[in-house]
Amino acid sequence: MSLLFPSTINRDVLMGDDIIIGEESYITKEAQIGDGVTLGDRVTIAKNVFIGAKTSIGDDTLVKKDSVIGMNVTTGARVVIGIGVTVLDGAIVADDSVIPNGGAVP
Fold this sequence. Notes:
Layout: E1 2-3, E2 8-9, E3 14-15, E4 20-21, E5 26-27, E6 32-33, E7 38-39, E8 44-45, E9 50-51, E10 56-57, E11 62-63, E12 68-69, E13 74-75, E14 80-81, E15 86-87, E16 92-93, E17 98-99, E18 104-105
Parallel strand pairs: 1-4, 2-5, 3-6, 4-7, 5-8, 6-9, 7-10, 8-11, 9-12, 11-14, 12-15, 13-16, 14-17, 15-18
């Protein structure tokens, strides 16, 4: 894992191998992060979020609680992923997107 400080990783976070976490990012408890995930700068991952392997989350992105992000997903910068969202494998989410609570991205 490569961690650029100051970033915060809370307790009870399950993390795979080869993860890169940008500066000033925050991961709350009970998150699960797969192998080869890259989190940009100032990314916030809320409680009980799953991020699949080889996913890339852009700078200034917020992922709210109880969301599932599949494998090989790419999000742009300044994205807001609402509560309980499902982003399916291979999806690409553009910069400045807002995905509402309970939404799905094919």
